Amino acid sequence: MKISESVRAVLVADENPMHPDFTGIYLVGKKGRQSLTIDSGEALDRYQWFLRGYLAAVEQEEIAIATITHHHSDHSGNLKWAKEFLKADITIPANGRSLLKGRIPTKVDTLKDGDVIDLDGGVRVQVLATPGHSVDSLCFYIEEEGVLFSGDTLLGSSTTTVSDLAAYRRSLKRLLELPNLKVMCPGHGKIINDPRERLQMYIKHRDMREQQILKALEGGGAISSWDIMLQLYPDIDKRLRRAADSNVRSHLKQLADEGRVKLYEGKPRRPKSAARVQQDVEHVRQRDLAIKHGRKLEAERSRAEVRAQENPPTGEWKEPPRFELL
Ligand SMILES: [Zn+2]
After folding, report:
1. How many CA atoms lie within 13 A of 271 on its CB side?
2. Rounded distance from Cα 72 to ligand 1 centre (Å)
3. What is the DSSP code string of 288-326?
4. Residue ranges per structural domain of the chain
5. What's the CATH number of domain 2-194, 2.60.40.10, 2.60.40.1740, 3.90.1300.10, 3.60.15.10?
6. How far apart are CA 12 and CA 199, in angstroms?
7. How many CB atoms are located within 10 Å of the residue 127 CB?
């Protein structure tokens, strides 16, 4: 799919429950000139097929440089392979090196905020450090064409996970400042054609959540994140409470770091003794055995019921009634 003058996208169908839609692989560069891939998927056949088969056959391109938006393995799984089979130069976020252990070749180039990748044919790709989803998250921007590659900082069809909320909110605001922004190519999900609106929506959503948390604290006294969560999400599906609590906690951490709320350290439960841990393990083993045995008995019973339907009722008759034509 052509996105702009020098950007093409391959959206590979995905089956990961966290991002069930697509994983995007992007090819940047003027046709027939040096090309760059941004993210290259997990170390699975179907991504490698796209990189080798599709790009070679349909686009008739060779990949000169392979880079990634961050270290997560669903983006960086094919870097070693790209080096070995495609002879591509590998470029990674400078602060992602230790996180990519085992997934990169020995010789790699590194990128940091403010760097520019200059491709043949005059394509300028700016590198922006946008920490938040992960510590090493980068976005890539081609200002001339208004195309931003957002990695997992912003997804096309779902919300992303955030490891550092304060950094994440700063990153979103920074992206909103980009001049000429027209289209956003995310790491997963559909291409975003209204990037500014989408960024504003996420920023507003986070601001609103923070306001709600501050309001919950206005009552005075110290309360736990769980209590705040129950106030903010009174009707939430109980299975999602832990996730909502973790969201509230990430806001509280930011507020505490900024000196806007006071944190009273909690008191963790004493860790269990080794004997107690062993006892729990044994309990689980016994329980699972009992479940397994129960399932076996249940299967036996249902088989017996079927057999009773299929076979003559020999249990009731020593000799069943018989019939003869008169
Ligand atoms: Zn990620």
Report:
1. 4
2. 5
3. HHHHHHHHHHHHHHHHHHHHHHHS--TTT-SS-------
4. 2-194
5. 3.60.15.10
6. 24
7. 20
* Global confidence as pTM: 0.76
Using the mean position of ligand 1's atoms as its centre, give its distance from the Cα of residue 14 in Å. Answer: 14
> How long a stretch of residues is the chain?
326
Distance from residue 70's CA to the centre of ligand 1 (Å): 7
Q: Rounded to the nearest whole angstrom, what is the distance from the C-alpha of residue 275 to the centroid of ligand 1?
A: 39
Q: Helices 241-257 & 165-176, crossing angle to 10 degrees?
A: 80
Q: Ligand 1 centroid vs 233 CA: distance in angstroms?
A: 26
Per-residue pLDDT of the chain (326 residues; tens, 9 = 90+): 888 988 988 888 776 655 557 788 898 988 777 789 999 888 888 888 877 777 666 666 778 899 999 999 989 999 998 898 888 899 999 999 999 988 898 899 999 999 999 998 889 999 999 999 999 999 999 999 999 999 999 988 777 888 899 999 999 999 999 999 999 999 998 999 999 999 999 999 999 999 999 999 998 889 999 999 999 999 988 888 888 898 899 999 999 999 999 999 999 988 889 999 999 999 999 999 999 999 999 999 999 999 888 888 878 888 889 999 99
**Residue 129, amino acid:** A
The residues that bridge with 63 in the sheet, in sequence order, are: 35
The tokens for 61 are 């391109």
Check if the beta carbon of residue 232 is closer than 8 Å to that of residue 248: yes
| Ligand 1 centre distance from Cα of residue 108 (Å) | 20
For residue 92, the one-letter residue type is: I
Residue type, 173: K
The token pair at 70 is: 């961050």
- C-alpha 320 to ligand 1 mean position (Å): 71
Task: Report the candidate in 5, 74, 23, 6 with the shortest Cα–Cα distance to residue 190.
Answer: 23
